[in-house]
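Final report, results section. Input specification for complex C-07:
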Amino acid sequence: MRDFSYSVDGDGIATIAWNVPGRSMNVMSWAGFAEIDALVRKGFADDAVRGIVITSAKEHFAGGMDLKILARMMAASDRAGRAKSFKEMSGVHGILRRIELAGRKGKDDVGKPVVAALNGTTMGIGYELALACHHIVCADRKDAQIGLPEIKVGLFPGAGGTVRLVRRLGLEAAIPFLFKGITPAPRKALAAGLVDQLAEPEKLVAAAKEWILNADEGATFKPWDQAGFRLPGGEPYSRKGFQTFAGAIAAINGATQGVYPAARAMMSAIYEGLQVPFEAAIRIETRWFAGMMTNPSPSSMIRTNFVHRLELRRGARRPRKVPATEIDRMGVIGAGMMGSGIALVAAQAGIEVELRDQTLELARKGRQAIEEILDSEISRNKLTPGKKGEILSRVSCGSGYAGLDSCTLVVEAVTEHPGLKAEVFKQLGECVGDDVVIASNTSSLEISSLAKSVPCPDRFVGTHFFSPVHRMALVEIVRGSSTSDQAIAVAFDFAQRIRKIPIIVNDCRYFYANRCIVPYLREGMRMIGEGVSPALIENSARQIGMPVGPLQLLDEVSIELAVHLANVTRKLQGEGYVADDADKVLFRMYELGRLGAKSGAGFYEYGDRNVRTGIWPGLGKEFKLREGQPPPQQVRDRLLLIQVVAAVKAFEDGILEDVREGDVAAVFGWGFAPWSGGPFQWIDGKGAAEVCKLCDRLSAEHGDSYSSPKLLADYAESGRRFHDKL
Amino acid sequence: MDAYIYDAVRPPRGRGRPDGGLHEVTAVRLSADIIDAIIERNGVKPDTIADVIWGNVTQIGEQGGCIARSAALLSSLPDSVAGLTINRFCASGLEAANLAANQINGGHGAGYVAGGVEMMSRVPMGSDGAALVVDPSLAMNSCFVPQGISADLIATLCGFGREDCDRFAAESQRRAARAWKERRFERSIQPVHDRIGMLLLDRDEMLRPETTAESLAALEPSFRDIGTSLPGFDKVALIKYPHLEKVDHVHHAGNSSGIVDGAAAVLIGSRDFGTANGLEPRAKFLATAKCGTDPTIMLTGTVPASRMALDQAGMSIEDIDLFEVNEAFASVPLHFMTELGATHERLNVNGGAIAMGHPLGATGAMLLGTALDELARSDRETALVTLCVAGGMGATAIIERT
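Structure output:
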């Protein structure tokens, strides 16, 4: 046996311990299934054994299914492939069901109880295994999570997880765990009914054994294997269940806006399964699951959310030759929203931060802002007052540049004025040595041009954070023309330390993310100018899976900033600049003084405390609505494609060097249609040729911004993909 | 062969609650009684009846298992008259009549008792289940929302405000009260008695003649909570109607149809049927139509179905003297008037379901009877009867006084 060990104690209790060699976390493979099946059978067959405990010899119980198994199933997209997946999953079901039936083959057989003793985090198939057991004891530790996160990668539990959890909890109670993928810590899992008992970690197996010693025959029958079982909350066609199902369907439909096929498939599997006996329900779940595996969404989501994100996080793109830098002390120049945000996340990661601004008072204001964020975390029970004190104590305030010499890294986060920034770099350069890396948090200025004011341009790098810094996962590390690998590596190590996702991009105006987001915002305004209904724009954005419509996002980033950026673009392009509908709308809004959320008026109206109350009704009067509104599909295509084209261009221009970064940044940076796995995955899923056709259609009607980049046309021509198959 | 209406009979509508006037009567008994009434008062020879076609929506319990056959057996009709139950939700009663008329058109059978029953106090609406509502493969793709949300969606799209709907509802109450006062329903109403001959109900029980638009203004919208908070049906509706920012919730108990118990029967036959029974026809069927629409907005089918019927009859909207548009919700007839240009003066002249209630499977046949009586009373020629239907359907009949 490789993955599991087996031992029997003096009380006749067999313990099966999971310990996959060479892995920090247990994952289930076909070999693993065969092993655990053989061991469970051994226990059932041995007259000296009265019960079985399944636990793990690692820090945690299980991370889920081996990705290779999933990848193989996903690759098998024809009918034969689906049938094979069905057969394989049916085999898994047979193993779990044998456990669940306590080894009984006939009616008169005596069953042996099987207890899952979850010593730590238990995800996916690990928890599905536990669900098949007769009792689930869980170690009472705060750093563990229990549940079924499959939906987060566009899948759903396919080894009986939906069948058993819904029968255990009822549909309503099961929804957060199945449809949101919430994986609570053990105490919450107990309260929710995901587990049956908590035990002190060191007494976990003992508690499991004790339960077996006290278990009677009845304990080895699942409620759903007993006569007269009623589903908690009612079956779909009971009076109460009918309401519950209608409501659940609506809630899930509304939340997913129809773009997450896994949510629909899972709901169907549950509904259809509840009208037939247990075994048939399992087959139904397996069928829906095998079908879902061949949808492009889950494999794209797995790659981006999981495989590629981890590869990037572990430094797949970090300059290899540069040794790791321990950053213990850093400086932040500029204590505004961005600067204080950077100081906050750094202090949270244990870094001593020198927060500087023109005056001590301004710097203190920044620290005040940090304190407010920490207080709100305390009020949401995310932080203890003690921790807050610790974090704050790491932030020292000051003015000027003295004392920054001992920092490994200094991040500049002053206002976006080239002159001001140049002054900062000049003075800073005079105060710190050549070994200090200087980073600029500019969002719209080119790093190479800022580098001219820095005494050692090779030690200068862009670190583009997003607002609010403590919530946004992405950091763009920008390589200017003189930036050294050393500087890139320090910026990378810093991003890693503060648990952000770093992507390394080359220098250009807007870098990567804003190169994609700005066109999305402008497209929203352009459509307003064309007379498209604002609600149609915003709803369509949500229907492609964007978290926020372009108009709302404009209000949030502020119309003032958008105007400023547009003016810079104008200046840069000079004579060649052609104002379009987007400019017309943008400058009119500015003229009207509707400057966005902070000013309490923008594309939306705002009530007390700047809470959004609805689209500004005056918008329809200011920009006359078109007689015939465009079909919603067209609006959706425009809002998605405008970002995709920008992403491909960034890759074509070499700003983006790795499409993994392009996808991960899109999904985790600005919430680009998460179901798609990012713009490049989206193209692969649809096929470059198909996307080119869409480009042609939209550019014919809406102009060059939709023209297919040459690179995309090449991919279409050759049938190439941006990513290899899983 | 032309199909004619010879008579229409209905019991008064009882409040759809345990204290309602008809609550203690079984669905089968009420059906059989009303079938017997129309046969007896017209002296119909039972062997001239080809079938009983009975509309019913909630076909479970006592209304399950083909209530038409049960009712035919319980009635005085001979065993040889079969019984067919049909379900087109709210238009079932009208579809029963249309189906009978079209059977006659096609030369199959000379005489029919058509109609329907719905004992909403006894068999709750929705208790028969529906894949439409809870099968995710269907409900999620089609964006199912409850009817009240659909009605509010119509109001939002057409710009009908709360006041428009309340004004319409108050007028329905006023007209219904006037109709009862002037005994305009008298010819069709068949009082209901219990088995020892004591009167149970002799007039529509729901009416609130004191209703005004102002008194309605105080009522809370019924569908706001399920629309905007839990489970949030508005979001589902907006998937289909993304150019709307939100749904205006304007409907409430006072401007929506009431839940009632009721039944109705229509006697339909060919010319020969009349001759055989010594009866003169009261009206002739000019056209019938049915159609499907988007299931999310659900209740707009009256318009396309009526357009189809008008086309079929070679008529325009001006050729119709009277309209009966079922008042499932105030926005339904308002939408019909807006779309087709029918005037309120000619529409639901004796009130409708907002005032008197809507016994689902029976209402269509009931409206046919109401139109028939009003054509005679007001000495007019043509009437169009139409109902919006759950699941996104519509049905219409056009009749002409003979």
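The mean pLDDT of chain B is 97. The two ends of chain B are 15 Å apart (CA to CA). This concludes the modelling results for the funded period.
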